[in-house]
Amino acid sequence: MSMPLPVFSVNPIAALIGGIFAQAFLQGISVVLVLAALYVLLKLTKAKERNWILVTVACANLVLSTIDISISFYYVLHIFIDENSTPESFILYYLTFQTWPNVTRVGLALTQALLGDFVLLYRTWVVWGKQRRGLLAIIVPGIFWIVCVSMCIVLVHKLAVDDYESVFAGDPMRWILSVLATTLTQNFICVSLILYKLWSVTTSAGGMQSQTSRSLWSVGSMILESGLLYCLTILPFMIIYSTDQSAFLIFEDMVSPMISITFSFLLAAGPGVAIL
């Protein structure tokens, strides 16, 4: 017995084309920001202060987002060339998530998100001091990160192996929303810890009058902006995924370059942030 076809609020073919164009546009912005971030990390930062962890993650984001958009183009071409007999066949192919392009793209996006979460965890450790106190500060967000890694592995395995009728209901939906909620919680905790540490240092240094205090708050505000941008990427993704499948056709293509943009945006701000 075949599953009933869902009702899309917009033409799914138009949504798919709109999604790939939006992804291509954002990928262009992502490439520019990654190159700017690498320029800051490698050229504007002193050799002894270069952070090779950030360089590696920036390059990894560029590679992963490029692979993602390549698979997206293949996916679209395959749909229109091989699955174009009827609108029903197009929708059924889209809903059949147990295909290597879909599973691979989920894995790529989750890997990017985990890399970004790891960098934020690393920044929290640096801000709190690379000592025992710093390790104690990141215990809770570190546990969230480990849990998120485990959940991502299980999620990708389930999507690749189990035969689900839809990823918009039931077990897949619960796993996806749980992963997103976990990464959001970890980001919120890390940003809060960083801002609290910067505030406490500024207070002990005599307020905002000193140059050190102003520099710390400048860095803290950029970290906050980057964290908020990430949250403003994930929250709409969760809402759209839960409510509108046709809009999700567009938004899912935008996630990978948006993660890269969120990460590189902070690094491109300047050497003072790049060494943090």
From TrEMBL:
Transmembrane intervals: 12-40, 52-77, 103-122, 134-156, 176-196, 216-242, 254-275
Instruction: Recite the UniProt keywords alphabetically.
Output: Membrane, Transmembrane, Transmembrane helix
Q: Which organism is it from?
A: Calocera cornea HHB12733
Q: What is this protein called?
A: Fungal pheromone STE3G-protein-coupled receptor
